[in-house]
Design a protein that fits this description.
37% helix; 3 strands; 79 residues; three-stranded antiparallel beta sheet; single chain
Length: 79
């Protein structure tokens, strides 16, 4: 299973402050996702993003999750 990293984990790896990591997530310089109000990323996404930044490229886009929508069930009709 993929290891999930917190903002502080990423800050330690990149040797920057946590506020810098949050800004990088908001500006999409790093890929991340929110769990509640907290940013998270995975080890593999972070490594890919670091490699892309080193090449002067932007990180790949995160896939947009598709929401399965079910049609509303018909409500019973009262006699």
């Amino acid at each position: 299973m993929e290891k999930i990293l917190t903002v502080n984990d990423v800050a330690t790896i990149l040797q920057v402050k946590a506020i810098t990591v949050r800004e990088m997530f908001r500006e999409k310089r790093l890929r991340g996702f929110k769990v509640g109000k907290a940013w998270r990323t995975t080890e593999s996404m972070l490594q890919e993003d670091i490699s892309a930044l080193a090449r002067g490229e932007s990180p790949a886009e995160l896939p947009t999750p598709e929401v399965q929508r079910t049609p509303p069930s018909p409500s019973p009709v009262a006699p």
